[in-house]
């Protein structure tokens, strides 16, 4: 989703260098402006391993990243007098991104995660370099990073290099007010001295999975809200379409002990509880429909599968958050070893997996919306929920908009991680494309929020058209929340886009879930 505004109340700081970061920590720094603090343990570890790197600087034996070139150029031994230039040249040449500017929250997440790896003491940077990076992040200085430049292997090289370039006082940044200016000017205004990189530091600043991991953490946070919102929307659709809640019974779902499925079914039972609309057709003698369509009946199975996939992705993210990604790396016993931990495959796979389940959740949401609009399937509602069908078109084109986004999400569900393209003169001959997987997932998550928002608008209008029958208290609360920022009541056609945008806003900020929970109590 797009950047969200920082909260008005202060957010507690995130301490780096003690226990490893959590997904919530990434969200608080990236999206809500939390400050970062370094633990004393972190600074001690950084100083200790820096001594190891400095001990290798005068060694006659070449050490990658310390006294050699990089990638396919690693065979050249670099003399001492050229090593500062080596580090500057690395960052300048690798800051080669292209295309649109990446969102502020993504860059802040990337910076935090690189700080977290530097703070492990496994990379060999100086404490002064780490402290300057933290100061830049806390000052709200956000380097300008571009859409293209990472293959998700050897780190998110170009994105991280643009951040390292800013630390050197070069390139473009945005200040805390969002204004674009030269990095040197922004650092000076914040009282931060540009860093002159020493041996190994340039490589340590750019060799990680931080961009793709940051976007994974943000997507997990968003999807956790959206899957609960989708449960609320599905329950309201069942209610408005005169469906049955019998299929959501706990004992039925216990027969298939998928944990996410049970949680979604429970959510839907809570939202449908005490609904007069539901009670109006509970008598089997008066209701001739034996069972509902799959998009209603199987909603917990699909949303539950999404939940379990999010949980799997979160486990992968937590493992990566506990990692120290660099090459070479300083081991716990003081060795400096080359490795392949920068390869983004584990992160790339779950980014692609999330795009798949997001597309399927949106697809089912769109199918429920379409049922409301079709007189043959809506159980007595007017065509397209229009006030005067023929004169009015109702929500006809809102469903077109949903369909367009769902179709786009299906394209975005094609995995990036199955692709690879050789780079660095075939030295780097297999890459993860994890950054690309993350970028398309962000677009997919945003589209999912908009698709579910349209289902909520559709369900709200359909439910209100059931009058004099009244909805359950949870639906009433959600309809009131939707109506507080946009119009969802039936009536003659009006300019629809602002109402759909208003519904999207209350979906992404959690207002819809909060409204439902004000009646149901906590939802999963």
UniProtKB/TrEMBL annotation:
Instruction: Look up keyword Lyase and say if it applies.
Output: yes
**Subcellular localization:** Cytoplasm
Q: Which Pfam families match?
A: Lyase_aromatic
Spell out the GO cellular component terms annotated for this protein, sorted alphabetically and separated by semicolons. Answer: cytoplasm
Enzyme Commission no = 4.3.1.3
The molecular function GO annotations come to:
histidine ammonia-lyase activity
Q: In which pathway does it act?
A: Amino-acid degradation; L-histidine degradation into L-glutamate; N-formimidoyl-L-glutamate from L-histidine: step 1/3
Q: Which InterPro entries match?
A: Aromatic_Lyase, Fumarase/histidase_N, HutH, L-Aspartase-like, Phe/His_NH3-lyase_AS
Source superkingdom: Bacteria
Catalytic activity, reaction form:
L-histidine = trans-urocanate + NH4(+)
Sorted keywords for this record are: Histidine metabolism, Lyase
Name the top EC class: lyase
PANTHER family for the chain: HISTIDINE AMMONIA-LYASE
Name of the protein in its database record: Histidine ammonia-lyase
- Supply the source organism for this entry: Knoellia remsis
């Amino acid at each position: 989703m797009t950047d969200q505004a920082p909260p008005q109340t202060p957010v507690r700081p995130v301490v780096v260098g003690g226990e490893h970061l959590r997904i919530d920590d990434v969200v608080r720094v990236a999206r809500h402006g939390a400050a970062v603090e370094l633990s004393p343990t972190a600074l001690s570890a950084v100083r200790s391993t820096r001594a190891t790197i400095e001990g290798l600087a005068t060694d006659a034996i070449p050490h990658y990243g310390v006294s050699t070139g990089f990638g396919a150029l690693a065979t050249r031994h670099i003399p001492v007098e050229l090593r500062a230039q080596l580090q500057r040249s690395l960052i300048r040449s690798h800051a080669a991104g292209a295309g649109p500017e990446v969102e502020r929250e993504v860059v802040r997440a990337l910076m935090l995660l690189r700080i977290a790896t530097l703070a492990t003491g496994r990379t060999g940077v100086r404490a002064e370099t780490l402290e300057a990076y933290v100061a830049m992040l806390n000052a709200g200085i956000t380097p300008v990073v571009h859409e293209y430049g990472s293959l998700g292997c050897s780190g998110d090289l170009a994105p991280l290099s643009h951040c390292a370039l800013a630390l050197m006082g070069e390139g473009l940044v945005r200040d805390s007010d969002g204004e674009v200016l030269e990095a040197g000017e922004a650092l000076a205004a914040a009282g931060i001295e540009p860093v002159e990189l020493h041996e190994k530091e340039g490589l340590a600043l750019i060799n990680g999975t931080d961009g793709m991991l940051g976007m994974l953490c943000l997507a997990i946070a968003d999807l956790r809200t959206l899957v609960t919102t989708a449960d609320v929307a599905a329950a309201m659709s069942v209610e408005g379409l005169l469906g049955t809640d019998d299929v959501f019974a706990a004992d039925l779902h216990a027969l298939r002990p998928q944990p996410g499925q049970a949680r979604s079914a429970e959510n839907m039972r809570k939202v449908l509880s005490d609904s007069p609309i539901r009670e109006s057709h509970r008598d089997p003698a008066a209701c001739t429909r034996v069972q509902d369509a799959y998009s209603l009946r199987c909603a917990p199975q699909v949303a539950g599968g999404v939940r379990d996939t999010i949980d799997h992705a979160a486990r992968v993210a937590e493992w990566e958050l506990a990692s120290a990604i660099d090459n070479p790396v300083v081991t716990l016993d003081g060795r400096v070893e080359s490795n392949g931990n920068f390869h983004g495959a584990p992160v790339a796979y779950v980014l692609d997996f999330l795009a798949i389940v997001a597309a399927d959740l949106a697809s089912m949401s769109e199918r429920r919306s379409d049922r409301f609009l079709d007189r043959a399937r809506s159980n007595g509602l007017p065509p397209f929920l229009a006030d005067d069908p023929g004169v009015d078109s109702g929500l006809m084109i809102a469903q077109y908009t949903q369909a367009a986004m769902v179709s786009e999400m299906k394209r975005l569900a094609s995995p990036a991680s199955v692709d690879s393209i050789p780079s660095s003169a075939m030295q780097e001959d297999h890459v993860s494309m994890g950054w690309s997987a993350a970028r398309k997932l962000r677009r997919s998550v945003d589209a999912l929020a908009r698709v579910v928002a349209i289902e909520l608008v559709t369900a709200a209008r359909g439910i209100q058209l059931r009058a004099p029958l009244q909805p359950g208290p949870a639906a009433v609360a959600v309809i009131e929340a939707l109506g507080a920022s946009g119009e969802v009541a039936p009536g003659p056609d009006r300019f629809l886009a602002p109402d759909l945008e208003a519904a999207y806003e209350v979906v992404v900020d959690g207002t819809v879930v909060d409204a439902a929970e004000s009646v149901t109590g906590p939802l999963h």
